[in-house]
Model the fold of this input.
Amino acid sequence: MESCVMNRNALLDILHTNRTKHLDEFNMLMPAWREKAVAEMQALISEISAGSSTRIAISLYAPVSHIADYDEAIALVTHDTRQTLELSLVDVRRFVMDNWVWKVDHLNSMMTYGKNPALKI
Done:
């Protein structure tokens, strides 16, 4: 089976729940990222000032908000006039299972900046 039919309102509930969860996680990650970035920069400045480092690069990727992806999916479903919608396997993965192409990067951010998620991909 490569598709399923789902109630529009049930799908909207799932999308809103997943959007809220993602926003909460992103809002938790940003302060942790800022704190880690500032600490690494201060340590690097201290090393350079002391003459003990020739390195000037820091590689810390900031967490990325994917709220626009959820908003786009919610708009798509909201503006559909049917009460039931046929979802492809890809739609189910993203919209229902919350498994987007960027999910691994998001989980990596959560592990890097302090929250250890249950690894569900």
Remarks:
- The mean pLDDT is 91.
